[in-house]
Amino acid sequence: MSELIRNPRVMKKLQQQAIEIAQGRSMISEEDLERMHYLKAVIKESLRLHPPYPLLLPRKSTQDVKLMGYDIAAGTQVIINAWAIGRDPALWEKSNEFRPERFLNNSVNYQGLQFDWIPFGAGRRSCPGIQFSVPVMELALANIVYKFDMVVPKGIENEDLDMSEQFGITIHRKSSLSVWVTPLC
Ligand code: HEM
To answer: Is residue 185's pLDDT more than 80?
Structure first.
């Protein structure tokens, strides 16, 4: 929500897609999600910049390895930082910008097979909640933007919206998100 409000171009494009898909119906349904490619890209881009679970479950190396110049001895506990990978400028063009378009022609999926985007982790300890949480996020966001327009309160510029994060086992906004909401239909 914060990124959409900060990026009205993306909000407009997403609302446009929601209007086209809903075709005047009162709600967007789960069956509609398949065709909402821009919505899926928005969610993926949000998870790239703001993975709710930033540090994956600890792993242990089973053998001595050399990784990017570092020697990691067998038995070392390793913690993988999905937050840093998602913002790595070597992997992502303009890595700090919210640009869902980067996921439109990108085969990346939720299974964690491409290690440059791992908000749900990877491998046998990856998140078993993907099948539940992704449709829930998509359905909620699709219906919110279909029904409401949201902007920053008067007197604040979009780029001044406080995006500070509270780090911990999970990451969330440091301050509550205050918005002006207008019903659309
Ligand atoms: C946006 C929502 C969610 C995100 C971003 C997320 C992310 C993650 C991540 C990054 C891990 C660690 C994976 C790894 O180390 O490879 C994890 C583990 C796990 N998640 Fe989720 N998760 C979400 C929702 C859920 C939901 C809804 C459930 C249950 C209904 C769930 C259940 C679990 C469980 C049980 C584990 C531990 C798996 C294990 O120990 O093998 N998650 N999740």
So the answer is: no
